[in-house]
Every structure is written in structure tokens, then in C-alpha cells.
Amino acid sequence: MYIYADNAATTKTSEAAIRAMTKVMEETWGNPSSLHSTGQRAKEVLEGAREKAAALLGCEPREITFTSGGSEADNMAIVSAAKNGARKNKKHIVSTAFEHHAVLHTLKKLEKEGFEVTYVEVPENGVVTVESIRDAIREDTCLVTVMFANNEIGTLQPIAEIGAVCREKKVPFHTDAVQAVGHVYVNVKEQNIDMLSLSAHKFHGPRGIGLLYAKRGIILSNLIEGGAQERGKRAGTEDIASIVGMVTAMEEAVRTIDEHAALLIPKRDRLIAGLSKIPHSTLNGDPEKRLPGNVNMSFEGVEGESLLLLLDDRGIEASSGSACTSGSLDPSHVLLAIGRPHEVAHGSLRLTFDADVTDEQIDYVIKNVGEVVEYLRNMSPLWFAKVEGRKEFYL
Ligand SMILES: *Cc1c(COP(=O)(O)O)cnc(C)c1O
Fold it and tell me: Which residues carry out catalysis?
């Protein structure tokens, strides 16, 4: 059996997106900045895609800037808010300890440039409290940035409520919604969001394309200098094929959110129940406030890396954290942020599904994860030390 269970890392491009992209590459290959008809036809397609994306997010077309993906959108949002803040001598930012590295590393860079960042603590269930954000906001806060859904443990944050607090305190609010758009309901107006990042390849669109929504009035700073594309804020000839592929995938994903959630949630919960029967294991993240397709478990006494490789041999493709941390020996910063000890964090497994997953595949995963965990534990001196009472169990 073959099961791709790493949809939080990337998703398979949908057929509709591929078809739409091919059509653009064949028929609308002009440069939208050109004044001739070929260029203007490309411009029309580009602006049509922007209108559709805006309608799906609940904003105005001119509030959308196309980027190379989620990372660039995160960088642009945060750097812009920081520059806007610095002009008013506001150099404090509120975020959380379990953001994506695109956010965390941008914040680290700003700290070196003299900004102060408060990383709000994440409770054990992986859901940040509105109160903790409210308490962290100061007179000199120029940005609050909190992710919509966590990419490792899938937990959903109280975005509309955090947005309401930011409105009340008159602080711009950015959310990295890369894992959320196309998976749960997102509407920037209703949810009080001032800036939002998304990325096509997390909802069955192509890689290398994303967008930043920034509410009218927020001044964006260029990360890339050059031509006047994207209202002068993001130079470089637009990748219209990818933009159209993204919007096609986004329309499909948004249209099927409820249908897909209804398919996924019972399977997700059955998988969680099945894997929780493994002794000394735990679910990471809230059992309910989580993405429909996300399961993240820790198994004491195993190495996540070994678990992944042995599961791959059995046709199950999963992840032990984010794609960026696999390959390094550092435990996941997300699991540490929710208070998992290093050793437990090391033995974690993330399985992320799309709506095509079948009941047979779920059964296969339950059976094989159980077998592999047992196999690895039987080879581990540390495990035997725990079983024999020479060391304490965490879980
Ligand atoms: C994947 C991801 C990103 C990065 O998006 P890219 O398009 O790969 O640059 C940022 N934030 C989150 C939460 C993600 O899951």
C-alpha cells in the first residue's frame, strides 16, 4: 500500500490547476506590463485572478500582492509592519513561540536590528489564549503576528478574537494562514485580519507562488527592487501561470472545505484513537481545535527519524516535524513550545492527509505504526531502562 501522509509539507497539484496553468502558458504568455494586445491579454488574466483571490478571502483586489510563496509573504508583512512602526518609534512586536521559521527567523533578524519581540507562551493544547496576546500588547507595539493553524500540530488559533483585540488596541494584526486557507473557513474582513500570508502548494496548487493580503492603508515595503509590478511593491514579471494555478486550486479547495472536513474528521479521529492505544504515547495538540487532516503523536522510547524511514519502507510517507527540521537533530521547536520534553519531542510523528485518504489506508497506518514503534522500542536500551524501572516514563 502507498499512502502520502505529508500534505502539510506539500500537496499534489490538482488536475484543474495543471490544466489552467498549461492553458495560460500556451495562450497567455505575454508580459502584462506590455502595452500591446498580447501583453494586455495577460494583464486581464492576471487581474482576473487577483479579483477571484480577493473574493475568496473577503478583501479588495488591490489589497493583494502576489509573492513567491508563504515565506516571502511572511517576510514582507513583518518587515513592512516593523518599518511602519519604526517611523513612529514603535519597535515592539508580539508573536508566539511556535510560529513557522519564515516568521521566527524574520523576527530574530529584526531583534538584531533593535526591535523587541514578546513570544507569547503556547499552552499544552497548542492553542494560544486571547488574553495572553492582550497582555503582551504595549504602547509601542507595532505588530501582532500569530499563525492561523500550526503546521506541525495542526491547532487552530482564535484568530477573529485576537484580531478584535488588535483592532481595539489599534495594532496591525498579521496571520500566517498558509496551513489554513482551503482547509478551514478564512475571511479577512469577518476575522479582523489586517495582513495574511498564504501559499498555493499547501492547497493543491503549484509550488513557488503565494500572496500577501494587506488591508488598504498599510504601507508595504519592497523586499525586491526593480520594475513597477504589483503597485511597485514586488518587482519582477508576474508568473501568471502559477498565479492562475493557485487561484484555480484555491477556488476548488474553498468550495469543498465542508465536504472535505466531513470526510476527514472521522478518519482523523479514528486514527488518533487507534494510535493512542499504543502504550506511552500522546496526541500533540488539541483533539478538536485542529485541522481536519492533521494527526501528530509522540511515542516514548523511539526516534522519529527511524520511525519515518521504517514507515517509508512500508509505503507510508509522513514527517517527524516540519520539512525544515527533518535532517537536523534539533527537536521540533513547536513540540518544545507546548512543553514536551526533548526526548518525547524526538519521538514524534506527523501524519497529514487530504480528502482522498481511505478507511483502508487509515487501518494500514494504525497497524504499521504500532508494529514499527514496538520494533524500535525492542531495540532501545533506554526503553528497557524505563520498562525495568531504572528510568521514569514521561508519558
Ligand atoms: C509551508 C509554510 C510556509 C512557507 O510557505 P512556502 O510557500 O513554502 O514558502 C509558511 N508558513 C507555514 C505555516 C507553512 O506551513
Answer: 324
Are the beta carbons of 98 and 157 closer than 8 angstroms? no
318-327 per-position pLDDT tens digit: 998 544 445 5
Ligand 1 atom closest to Cα of residue 322: 15
Classified as helix, coil or strand, 204 is coil
Burial (CB count <10 Å: 0-12, 13-18, 19+), residue 55:
middle
Largest Cα–Cα separation, the chain: 79
| 173 Cβ neighbours under 8 A, 6+ residues apart | 143, 144, 145, 146, 162, 163, 166, 167, 192, 193, 194, 195
Residue 323 C-alpha to ligand 1 middle, in angstroms? 10
Q: What's the grid cell of residue 313?
A: 519502507
Instruction: State the pLDDT at residue 325.
Output: 47
Backbone Cα Rg of the chain: 22
Pocket test for ligand 1, best of 74, 199, 290, 325 (most atoms within 8 A of CB): 199
Q: Tell me the best of 103, 179, 197, 334 to mutate to test the pocket of ligand 1, counting ligand atoms within 8 Å of each CB and taking the most.
A: 179
Q: What is the CA angle 146-264-273, rounded to 5? A: 90
How many angstroms separate the CA atoms of 98 and 338, rounded?
A: 8
Check pocket membership of 75 for ligand 1, CB cut-off 6 A: no
**Pocket lining: 151 vs ligand 1, CB cutoff 6 Å:** yes
Residue 205 Cβ < 6 Å to ligand 1:
no
Indicate if the alpha-carbon torsion angle 28, 32, 37, 42 is positive or negative.
positive
Residue 324: the pLDDT is: 45
Residue 187 · residue 181 · CB < 8 Å: no
Residue among 363, 190, 355, 154 nearest 257 (CA): 355
Indicate whether this model's pTM tops 0.85.
yes
pLDDT tens track for 347-380: 999 999 999 999 999 999 999 999 999 999 999 9
Q: Is the CB of 102 under 6 A from ligand 1?
A: yes
